[in-house]
């Protein structure tokens, strides 16, 4: 399944290369909402909130009322998760909040928020740079790998979103052996992102029972939506 991505930064829809360099920016929200309305799931990320430089809460709520979204970016508390769900999101994506600076999985928080809002409404964001988990809008890393984290989070989440930051925005293809390895670590829904560029690639991932998030390839019309 293809999951289109809407990334928000400074009140616009954007696409960044490896989470840093601005490549594309759009103000025409109606165009993209209409274009993505046929999809069963759309990914919505507040990059300002993820980078701790403000937020786009009003836009998140506006889009979540119109599209079936899983929303993430700067969700660190149960209260914030509830706010995003109450705004219309189907699920919330938790990233940095699941990991401590010391390099441990915060299983206590995972259990707490799972009990509060339901595991079926939680997606664990597992973003990696150079094989290690990246946090705080990909500005920092912890001494953990996806292989360390996924088994510990398994009781508390409905899905995993693995982002291969090294390939994000480059449209050079997702490393399929990584998807194959991760698929063996969990029985939950597995979604991957980072470099996806073709329908053939999405179809190959589908045969592995892996869903695909695409952004740059969608916004540059490399992928038809």
> How many strands, which pairing sense, and closed or not: the largest β-sheet?
8 strands, parallel, barrel
Question: What is the number of E strands?
Answer: 12
Number of helices: 9
Helix vs. strand class = alpha/beta
What is the CA-based Rg, rounded?
16 Å
- Could you name the CATH topology? TIM Barrel
Average pLDDT figure: 94
CATH class: Alpha Beta
Structural shape = globular
**Which CATH architecture?**
Alpha-Beta Barrel
Unreliable spans are: none
Head-to-tail CA distance between termini: 12 Å
| Series of secondary-structure elements, N-terminal to C-terminal | EEEHEHHEHEHEEEHEHEHEH
Q: How much helical structure, as a percent, in the residues?
A: 25-40%
Beta-strand percentage?
25-35%
Fourth-tier CATH superfamily name: Aldolase class I
Give the count of structural domains: 1
Strand order of the largest sheet: 1-4-5-6-7-10-11-12
């Amino acid at each position: 399944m293809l999951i289109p991505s809407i990334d928000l930064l400074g009140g616009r829809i954007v696409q960044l290369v490896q989470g840093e360099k601005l490549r594309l920016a759009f103000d025409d929200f109606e165009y993209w909402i209409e274009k993505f309305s046929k999809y069963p799931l759309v990914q919505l990320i507040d990059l300002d909130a993820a980078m701790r430089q403000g937020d786009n809460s009003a836009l998140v709520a506006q889009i979540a009322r119109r599209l079936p979204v899983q929303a993430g970016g700067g969700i660190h508390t149960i209260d914030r998760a509830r706010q995003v769900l109450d705004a219309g999101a189907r699920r919330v994506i938790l990233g940095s909040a699941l990991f401590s600076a010391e390099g441990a999985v915060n299983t206590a928080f995972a259990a707490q928020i799972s009990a509060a809002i339901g595991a079926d409404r939680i997606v664990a964001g597992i973003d990696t740079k150079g094989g290690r988990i990246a946090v705080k809008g990909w500005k920092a890393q912890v001494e953990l790998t996806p292989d360390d984290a996924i088994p510990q989070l398994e009781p508390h989440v409905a899905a995993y979103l693995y982002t291969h930051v090294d390939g994000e925005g480059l449209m050079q293809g997702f490393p399929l052996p990584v998807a194959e390895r991760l698929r063996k670590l969990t029985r939950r829904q597995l979604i991957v992102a980072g470099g996806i560029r073709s329908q053939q690639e999405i179809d190959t991932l589908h045969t592995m029972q892996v869903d695909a998030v695409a952004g740059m390839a969608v916004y540059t019309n490399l992928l038809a939506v």
